[in-house]
Amino acid sequence: MIDLNADLGEGFGRWTLTDDEALLSVVSSANVACGFHAGDPSTMRRVCELAVARGVRIGAQVSYRDLAGFGRRAMEVPARELADEVAYQIGALEVFARAAGAAVAYVKPHGALYNRTVHDVEQAAAVVEGVRLAAGTGLPVLGLPGSRLLRAAGEAGMRAVPECFADRAYTAEGTLVPRSEPGAVLHEPAAVIAQALALAGARAGRSLCLHGDTPGAAELAARVRAALEGAGIRIGAFA
Q1: Which residues contact 190 (CB under 8 A, 6 or more apart)?
Q2: 0.85 cut: is pTM over it?
Q3: H or E element, residue 143
Q4: Rounded CA gap, 132 and 109, in Å?
Q5: Cα 143 vs. chain centroid, distance in angstroms?
Q6: 192, 186 Cβ separation under 8 angstroms
Q7: What is the CB-side half-sphere exposure of residue 130 using CA atoms within 13 A?
Q8: Burial class of residue 103 (count of CB atoms within 10 Å of its CB; 0-12, 13-18, 19+)
Q9: Which of 31, 69, 111, 140 is deepest in the core (most CB within 10 A)?
Q10: Predicted confidence band at 14 (pLDDT cuts at 50, 70, 90)?
C-alpha cells in the first residue's frame, strides 16, 4: 500500500489553480496550502470540508512567505522566525480542519523550503521546531528520503515519512532536478505512470506525490492511481 498525495488549495481570492474537487476524488492525502505561498482562509476552509467529505487526510503544506513567487524562490529567513511562521501556518489550517470535523494529520514543506531542508541543517531544524511549537511531536513530517528534514524530525521524536514524486525528475544523487532546468517536471502521462510504478515497486517512499498545479493534474492523478491499483498496489493514507 502507498499513500497518494497532492498539493491542493493553491489559489488566492478569485484566482484558482488546482482542481481540488477532482483531485480529492483520487488522492488519500491532501497537502493544503496555508496562505504563505498560496491559499486564503475561505479556500482553506473549503478544501478541508471537501477532504473530510471524501475521507481524505489533511496535511499542512508550509512555505516561505512568498505569495508573489509561489513559494519557489530562494529566501533567507532566520531560524526562529521560520519556526514561528511554520507554527503559524499549521495553526491556521488546524482551525479549518477542526471546523470540518478533522485535524491536521501531517506537515510537508513546499517548494523552495522543501528543497532547502534537504541539505540545510538549520532550516530543517527550524521547520521541525515550528511543528513542535504547533503540535508537539505528534505530527508526522514528509520529506525527501535522506534529507536533513527527516533526520531532524526523527531526532525530535516525530515520525519521518519519506516521500517520492511521480512527476518530477531526479538527479543521480536522489534529489529533485531544479525547476530551472529542462525536464525537471514530467508532463507525458506514460512517463509519469512509469515512474510512479517504479518508485512504488521499489518502495522508494511511503507517500507518492503528484503536483496539483500541472496542466491536467486531476486526470493524470486518476490514471496513476488506476495503474498502481492495476499493479496490485493499494492506495491508502500512511499509518
Answers
A1: none
A2: yes
A3: strand 141-143
A4: 14
A5: 8
A6: yes
A7: 32
A8: middle
A9: 31
A10: confident
